[in-house]
Amino acid sequence: MKSKHSMGEQMAKLQTVNSRELKAEGGSQTLARGLAALEIIGSVSEPISVATLSQQLKIHRSMGYRLVKTLEQSGFIERDGAGGLILGSKLAILARGVAKDLLSAATPELAAIADALEMTAFLVTYDGESAVTLSSAEPKNLETTLGKKPGSRHAIGQGAPGKVIQSLLKPKKFPPQPFEVSENEVIHGIASIAVPLYLSSGQPAAIAVLYLPHDVNEVSVAKVLTSAASRICAVMG
Fold it and tell me: Which domain holds residue 43?
């Protein structure tokens, strides 16, 4: 059963996305709605229904079902076990094409972090508006995982990696820290630790881990992440 807290957070995020006017001046309104649908689905912490998505897009539910069906057929949207909408694997493929060099350098490091710390490890960058997960790795020997799906988005300043990216974008207002921590900020009941990834391109980025809240040595975890970040940057040049 969803908590009042998590539902409140989800509706706030939906309202933030929906506050943008879905206008397609000189372009395709259908395409604009499709892109807005992907943004809504990627911005919330829990899968949403077609009815909720249609409401946020301000379209009739029948139109929402047609839009979702098209996006599903293209692989941009998938459904979880309960039928809720989540971002699909096609977005991960597109993300890999955009940042192929970075992903090549980061993928083995994320896998090593996940196995060493037994936590979900993921790479986050900034797309000019939000913090976006480019890649993630799960521990091999754990039955329960906390997947951070590639293409997932959340606001900068929110969650540990969002805070890191915020500090890289606005260092005077938010002085960069060796690492950032968060709990219950992006996904209710989940904690995170993140460190900056100082790319030569200047692109704001972070690597982070997700875990169920419990006593952890945050400094030790941050050291593992920082070492990995240094190796990634060395490979990238």
Answer: 4-87
